[in-house]
Write a structure and sequence with these properties.
mainly alpha, 4 helices, 2 domains, single chain
Length: about 110
C-alpha cells in the first residue's frame, strides 16, 4: 500500500489530477473552447477514470505480474473471443446504420 493513500483518495488524486492536467490547455488559454482539440481533451478526461481504477487495483494487488495483469483486471475479450468480437462489430454497425434513420426524423434533423 502506498503510504498515506487509501483507495478512494488514490482514485480521486489520479482521476481528478490527470483530468485537470489534461484540460489545462483550456484553462491557460492555449486552445479555444471552439477548437477541435476540445473533443480530444474530453476523451482524455473520461479515460482518467479508468486510470484511477487501475491505480486502485494496483494498490490492492501489488504482487501481480505484468503477464497476468490483463486477465486479473478483466481487460480481456473473455472466454468467448469470437462472440465478443461479433457483438462489438454488430454494435458499431448498428450505430452507423441507425444514424440516418434518426436524422430523417424532423425533430432530430439538423437545420
Amino acid at each position: 500500500m502506498i503510504k498515506g493513500f487509501s483507495s478512494p483518495t488514490l482514485f480521486l488524486v489520479v482521476t481528478l489530477g490527470l483530468a485537470w492536467l489534461g484540460a489545462s490547455p483550456l484553462w491557460i488559454g492555449a486552445t479555444s473552447v471552439n477548437s477541435s482539440t476540445v473533443s480530444t481533451l474530453g476523451l482524455l478526461m473520461m479515460f482518467t477514470t479508468s486510470l484511477g481504477s487501475l491505480a486502485v487495483w494496483w494498490l490492492k494487488h501489488p504482487g501481480c505480474s505484468l503477464r497476468r495483469w490483463p486477465r486479473s483486471t478483466g481487460i480481456t475479450l473473455g472466454p468467448g473471443k469470437s462472440r465478443t468480437v461479433a457483438l462489438v462489430v454488430t454494435q458499431l454497425l448498428s450505430a452507423v446504420l441507425i444514424a440516418p434513420v434518426i436524422n430523417s426524423i424532423p425533430a432530430f434533423a439538423e437545420e
